[in-house]
Amino acid sequence: MANNEDQFKKVISHAKEYGYIFGSSEIYDGLSAVYDYAQNGVELKKNIREYWWKSMVYMHQNIVGLDAAILMHPKTWKASGHVDAFSDPLIDNKDSKKRYRADVLIEDHAEKLENKAQKEITKAKKRFGDSFNETEFVTTNTRVIGYREKKAEMLSTMAHLLEAEDLSGVKALIEELGIVCPVSGSKNWTDVKQFNLMFGTKLGASAETATDLYLRPETAQGIFVNFLNVQKTGRMRIPFGIAQTGKAFRNEIVARQFIFRMREFEQMEMQFFVRPGQEMKWYDYWKQTRLKWHHSLGLGPENYRFHDHEKLAHYANAATDIEFKFPFGFKELEGIHSRTDFDLKAHEAHSGKKLQFFDPELKENYTPYVVETSIGLDRMFLAVFSNSLQEETLQDGSTRTVLRLPAILAPVKIAVFPLIKRDGLPELAKQIIEDLKWDYNVFYDEKDAVGKRYRRQDANGTPFCVTVDHQTLEDKTVTIRHRDTMEQQRIAISDISGLVAKSLSMKDWLQ
Ligand code: GAP
Fold first, then answer.
1. Is residue 18 part of a domain?
2. Atom 7 in ligand 1: which residue has the minimum CA distance?
3. pLDDT of amino acid 2
4. CATH code at 487?
């Protein structure tokens, strides 16, 4: 595709055209940064959720699930630190009247230096060809080293300023770096201010008696407040984990980039409770395990990288992001955080209830430490969808749009077509669907020439098409066409299910 911006536009329009994602309440001109998942989108989302859930809950004997409510006692958010510290540093440009996250402005500026370094690497790669040694080049080339040192210094200064809550220092840094507003091009900035991201709501019938509540900004706290309930009823022993998927809400000020940053989104989180002192071992374990999960989907290992946090959240003693190469560059897809005993201790203090574990091996009580893995389901959707959307030039010079979704995640697994709309072929095709529908989401299509129907399914991401023709009436065989290779095979009707099942084996994908 032409360039990243074009590709991203294509991703957004393809998602709408093929029934994956619509803007929320579009007939009223939509609601900014809120989206609806359409007939195919809801299936892809469900399949990603299931792939995550099975890899966490079914693959680990010591991890169990939970589905806590979105509304929680308001003290939860005081204890977790969200009331006091869940805010973004915002800055306005006085000329364009646009509002930005001050840290994002600086990070984007720093990323430009990385892009310059990458350009040097690409140039050198071209110059030296096969003999190019990237590791040696990046550690000896003065320009690359210079760009990267400058970037690191910028980010570290920002981290220190944010850590010290020195908002005028953050503004001074923006001015010193000469950062301009992307819209007006001016450096006419307001002061930097903190803005809390939680959505408030009310519980109760009348304004006077109603209690102020928050829509949860992360699912994790539902796990912490249930830690002892699950531990006792599940007779769990440390180390053990609790996994949960569900909606979270943040009043994002700079909501942009389609479903990358939304106001209502879904998280897939797992809190792993460990012995104090063992958290770094588990932090490394979960870093590797989660990266392996991502790699298993075949989107290309070069599209992932770790980014260790410069500025740690108030609850963490180590944190990293798994970043993915979205059409707009490498951005956070998942966070892995060593959250210490901050949350359990804070809930103990605010609730007055003990949240400790008696370790039978050590014969002592302690507050467990926690390692968390937290991934945005919508971001994962965007990663899979944008990476899968490809435009290919075929041997005959024609082009085809193909959505190469991993088969295990594809919304529709099999499309069944009668070659023509008569001679009993539609009836036979529908009979085949009657049998397959117990195991797969199957789609029937009889409109247009079969080639056109194949192309529609390619663009829809359907891994298999089955065509019923006159020979099927005679020998009960069909043509099965593979989306990625466009290869066609003649197989017995009774073999369709087995062939498709092979390509959807969770064991094969995950291993
Ligand atoms: N419990 C830890 C936590 O919530 P986070 O880094 O704020 O950590 C975790 O969020 C993940 O949730 C992110 O890596 C991202 O994938 C997703 N996420 C966060 N804010 C989001 C938003 N506004 N829209 C979509 N996804 C979001």
1. yes
2. 218
3. 43
4. 3.40.50.800
Q: Which of 76, 265, 343 to mutate to test the pocket of ligand 1 (most atoms within 8 A of CB)?
A: 265
| One domain, residues 360 and 447 | no
Here the CATH number for the domain that contains residue 262 is: 3.30.930.10
- Average pLDDT along the chain, 511 residues, taken 10 residues at a time: 78 97 95 95 98 98 98 96 91 93 93 92 91 91 94 92 90 95 95 94 84 95 97 96 98 85 97 97 98 98 94 86 96 97 97 95 96 98 98 93 98 98 97 98 97 97 98 97 97 98 96 87
Tally the domains of the chain.
3
Crossing angle of helices 4-17 and 377-388, in 10° steps, is 110
Token pair recorded at residue 361:
């091996």
Determine the Cα–Cα distance for residues 336 and 224; give it in Å rounded to an integer: 16
Question: To test ligand 1's pocket by mutation, which of 307, 374, 375, 382 has the most ligand atoms within 8 angstroms of CB?
Answer: 374
Exposure of 397 by Cβ count < 10 A (0-12 exposed, 13-18 middle, 19+ buried)? exposed
CA 320, CA 377: separation in Å to the nearest integer? 18
Using a 6 Å CB cutoff, which residues line ligand 1? Answer: 218, 220, 250, 252, 261-262, 265, 267, 269, 332-335, 372, 374-376, 378-379
* 3-class secondary-structure state, position 460: helix
C-alpha 490 – ligand 1 centre gap (Å): 46
331 Cα: distance to centroid of ligand 1 (angstroms) = 12
Token reading at 431: 């009979």
Cα(131)–Cα(236) distance, integer angstroms: 54
Q: Which of the 8 DSSP states describes residue 204?
A: S
DSSP, res 447: S
| Cα 262 to averaged position of ligand 1 atoms, centre (Å) | 10
Range of the domain at 121: 87-194
Q: In terms of pTM, does the model score above 0.90?
A: no
Q: Are 40 and 389 in contact (CB under 8 A)?
A: no
